[in-house]
């Protein structure tokens, strides 16, 4: 991108973004008229891209979308017309086709009165030989916990080709729950005050998040491909319910799930909620399963299994061997398991160098170190004490502490790793959810099957908040000691990951922001993990 074009793009977006940064912006942006929430793009292919905006008026409004190779739109290279519909919360989405592969474009929407939206930048994917391509990986952005400095830092770069968001784009909780009122950063306001349960709630929560100028800037600067995790629905969701859903007080889960999915499809630059695949020329395929609400079975409940007294040791063994290990339990359902196995084989057969699977939760195995019980504060909340106690009990028989990740679905994990090996894939999974930064080697029966890059959160707190009676050094050393597949971890800071895909290696750079309590682009430190083509294991550099 030419420097003059980049400066012009920033100028074109300045007025709208600055206006939304004022106190009360979430309310002002939601109830304003016109282009209220910027622009976004997503789901690119070699010849098409999906464009998104929101235009609020008294009724449906016909908008014109324009793409151009330059930010002044001197020559329109593509576009079309689309309605910002009232029954879609005044959002508008249009797939523009007939574009040139491996090409950057500027885009905007124009209202009937000639008013233009902010200008965005997007690109199509390559369809031939590719030497390099760079992704940015994000997850877990809880607005009241702090500023979205990770988004702002990435948006200020000019070397990111595609943004991946693997979930927890927002959080569904009522104000004062997570974070508590004492933990919340003043001025970081979300709507509604209540928990998001019905369609109007989810829409308003998206509106308040998308009023954030750093999130708008991220969407404005590059296309995003995204999948929801649990908090876009409710905490620890699965196909038939969620930990944070009470049917007696919050109604039918199917209705809540449908409302959440509809709001996600309206407000995100996606066609729908579901599995998708993207091909970056002959360099990589990005195969994205939906691991949360389509086919996931309920998480195993060790607490319930240990309730009622009796022989705890016998109960742990029974839970491990009969419930946790049950091969019938699935993370994403049999149809998706078959689909992803077929796509891995097809990618390798086509001569594609890397088979990358961005998805929501960690595949790497994490067992609680025995010291964990000493790390929690005496006044820690009961739910945290209970979770630590259960994790320590589980560790005695080799069980993990987090049954909401792939650790809760070991047979399904082994089936996926077997599929990667059967395909002879160069398998890399990119995950979020945990709030901390991880790098794992993934193996099946001692055979290297791939690697995992687990990205840290944008703002949501990690181990540093839950285990204050420990240091980063003691936590990581203990985690390494009891988890041999763990190659590296950082459990303190927030940020994002860039994934530079080359023909012979992938370099994943963890970017750790200095703070989230003030708006800042200062980076505290970085760390790189590398996987070489054909190795299916990490080199720490």
Write the layout of secondary structure elements.
Layout: H1 3-20, H2 25-31, E1 34-42, E2 49-56, E3 61-68, E4 76-84, E5 91-96, E6 104-110, E7 120-123, E8 132-138, H3 149-155, E9 162-165, H4 199-210, H5 213-221, E10 224-226, E11 237-238, E12 241-242, H6 247-250, H7 253-267, E13 276-280, E14 284-288, H8 302-306, H9 312-324, H10 334-349, E15 354-358, H11 372-375, H12 382-395, H13 410-422, E16 427-431, E17 437-444, E18 447-454, H14 463-466, H15 472-482, E19 486-490, E20 495-502, E21 505-513, E22 523-532, E23 538-540
Parallel strand pairs: 8-9, 9-10, 14-15, 15-16, 16-18
Antiparallel strand pairs: 1-2, 2-5, 3-4, 3-6, 6-7, 8-20, 11-12, 13-14, 17-18, 17-19, 20-21, 21-22, 22-23
Helix pairs in contact: 1-5, 2-4, 3-5, 4-7, 10-13
Structure notes:
The protein is an alpha+beta fold and 541 residues long. Strands 10-9-8-20-21-22-23 form a seven-stranded mixed sheet. The chain has helices at residues 3-20, 25-31, 149-155, 199-210, 213-221, 247-250, 253-267, 302-306, 312-324, 334-349, 372-375, 382-395, 410-422, 463-466, 472-482; strands spanning 34-42, 49-56, 61-68, 76-84, 91-96, 104-110, 120-123, 132-138, 162-165, 224-226, 237-238, 241-242, 276-280, 284-288, 354-358, 427-431, 437-444, 447-454, 486-490, 495-502, 505-513, 523-532, 538-540. The chain is globular and about 75 Å long.
Put the structure in a nutshell.
With 541 residues, the protein is an alpha+beta fold. It has 15 helices and 23 strands.
- Average pLDDT confidence is 93
Count of individual helical segments: 15
- Characterize the overall form: globular
Helix content: 25-40%
Give, in spatial order, the strands making up the sheet with the most strands: 10-9-8-20-21-22-23
The largest sheet, given as strand count, sense and whether it forms a barrel, is:
7 strands, mixed
Structural class: alpha+beta
């Amino acid at each position: 991108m030419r420097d003059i074009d980049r400066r012009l793009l920033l100028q074109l977006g300045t007025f709208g973004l600055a206006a939304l940064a004022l106190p009360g912006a979430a309310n002002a942006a939601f109830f304003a008229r016109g282009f209220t929430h910027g622009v976004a793009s997503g789901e690119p292919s070699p010849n098409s891209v999906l464009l998104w905006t929101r235009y609020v008026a008294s009724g449906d409004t016909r908008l014109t979308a324009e793409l151009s190779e330059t930010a002044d739109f001197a020559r329109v290279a593509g576009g079309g017309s689309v309605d910002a519909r009232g029954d879609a919360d005044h959002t508008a989405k249009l797939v523009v086709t007939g574009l040139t592969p491996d090409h950057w474009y500027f885009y905007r929407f124009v209202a009937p009165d000639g008013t233009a939206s902010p200008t965005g930048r997007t690109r199509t994917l390559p369809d031939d030989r590719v030497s390099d391509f760079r992704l940015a990986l994000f997850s877990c952005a809880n607005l009241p916990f702090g500023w979205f400095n990770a988004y702002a830092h990435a948006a200020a770069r000019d070397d990111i080709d595609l943004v991946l968001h693997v979930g927890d784009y927002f959080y569904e909780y009522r104000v004062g729950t997570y974070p508590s009122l004492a933990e919340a950063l003043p001025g970081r306001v979300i709507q509604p005050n209540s928990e998001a349960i019905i369609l109007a709630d989810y829409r308003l929560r998206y509106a308040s998040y998308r009023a954030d100028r750093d999130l708008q800037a991220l969407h404005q600067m590059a296309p995003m491909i995204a999948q929801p995790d649990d908090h876009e629905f409710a905490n620890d969701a699965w196909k038939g319910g969620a930990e944070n859903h009470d049917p007696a007080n919050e109604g039918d889960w199917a209705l809540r799930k449908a409302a959440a999915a509809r709001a996600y499809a309206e407000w995100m630059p996606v066609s729908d909620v579901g599995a998708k695949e993207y091909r970056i020329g002959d360099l990589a395929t990005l195969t994205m399963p939906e691991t949360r609400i389509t086919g996931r079975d309920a998480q195993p409940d060790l607490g319930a299994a240990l309730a009622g007294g009796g022989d705890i040791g016998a109960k742990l063994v029974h839970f491990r061997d009969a419930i946790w290990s049950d091969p019938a339990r699935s993370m994403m359902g049999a149809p998706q398991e078959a689909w992803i196995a077929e796509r891995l084989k097809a990618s390798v057969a086509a001569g594609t160098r890397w088979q990358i699977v961005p998805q929501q939760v960690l595949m790497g195995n994490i067992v609680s170190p025995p010291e964990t019980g000493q790390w929690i504060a005496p006044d820690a909340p009961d739910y945290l004490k209970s979770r630590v106690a259960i994790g320590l009990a589980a560790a005695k028989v080799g069980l993990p502490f987090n049954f909401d990740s792939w650790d809760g679905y070991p047979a399904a994990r082994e089936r996926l790793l077997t599929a990667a090996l059967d395909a002879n894939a160069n398998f890399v999974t990119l995950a979020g959810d945990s709030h901390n930064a991880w790098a794992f080697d993934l193996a099946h029966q001692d055979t290297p099957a791939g690697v995992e890059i687990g990205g840290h959160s944008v703002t949501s707190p990690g181990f540093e908040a839950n285990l204050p009676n420990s240091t980063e050094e003691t936590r990581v050393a203990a985690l390494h000691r009891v988890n041999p597949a763990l190659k590296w971890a950082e459990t303190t800071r927030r940020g994002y990951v860039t994934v530079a895909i080359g023909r012979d290696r992938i370099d994943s750079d963890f970017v750790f922001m200095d703070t989230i309590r003030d708006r800042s682009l200062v980076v505290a430190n970085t760390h790189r993990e590398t996987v070489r083509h054909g190795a299916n294991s990490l080199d720490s550099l």
